[in-house]
């Protein structure tokens, strides 16, 4: 894909890595239903084997980006480490102003992680949106809430989560994130 973009003239490419899939309600619920008690999440609330797969993929991605950069020194290709940002949001929600890091906002009250693999938000009438979406990191078991996406973007704009590093000047002075209401 990068080669095709380069051939079309792209010289600045930003690649997003894989998020912590072992912390998502859809993964947690599926894992529990398949493997039972043997696959319960650890103290962080996540199933580490899935997060290990994501970090392994991300490390391979880093190597590919470095290799691509050596082949094409006129291109600027960077990886944004959304894995670290979102893992911190999900496992330390209060630190970021959230109440629920792993439970789904649009879900079924009383179920683990407010999530059901058979009754999904927007498909079934059983799952209902939570009262305060700003308190949740996860929207429907697989996607992040608007508040979590804003928190991710704010962390992203600090410039600390790029490989290789990209100098980002004072982004808060030059741009702001506006919350769009529909």
Summarize the structure.
It holds the Pfam family Lipase_GDSL. The protein is an alpha/beta fold.
Notes on the structure:
- The chain is of the alpha/beta class and 182 residues long.
- It has one domain.
- It is 36% helix and 11% strand.
- It is built from six helices and five strands.
- The protein has helices spanning 2-7, 25-35, 48-71, 82-91, 146-156, 171-174; strands at 12-16, 76-80, 100-104, 136-138, 162-163.
- The strands form two sheets. It has a three-stranded mixed beta sheet, covered by helices on one side. The chain has a two-stranded parallel ribbon with strand order 3-4.
- α4 packs across α5 (146-156).
- Mean pLDDT is 86; it is low at 169-182.
Helix content: 25-40%
Task: Please state roughly what percent of the residues sit in beta strands, choosing from under 5%, 5-15%, 15-25%, 25-35%, 35-45% or over 45%.
Answer: 5-15%
End-to-end separation in angstroms reads 35 Å
Number of helices: 6
Radius of gyration: 18 Å
- The geometry reads as elongated
Estimated structural class: alpha/beta
Q: How would you characterize the largest beta sheet?
A: 3 strands, mixed
Strands in their spatial order, largest beta sheet = 1-2-5
Q: Based on DSSP secondary structure assignment, what is the total number of beta strands?
A: 5
GO molecular function, one term: hydrolase activity, acting on ester bonds
InterPro entries: GDSL, SGNH_hydro_sf
Family: Belongs to the 'GDSL' lipolytic enzyme family.
Protein name: GDSL esterase/lipase
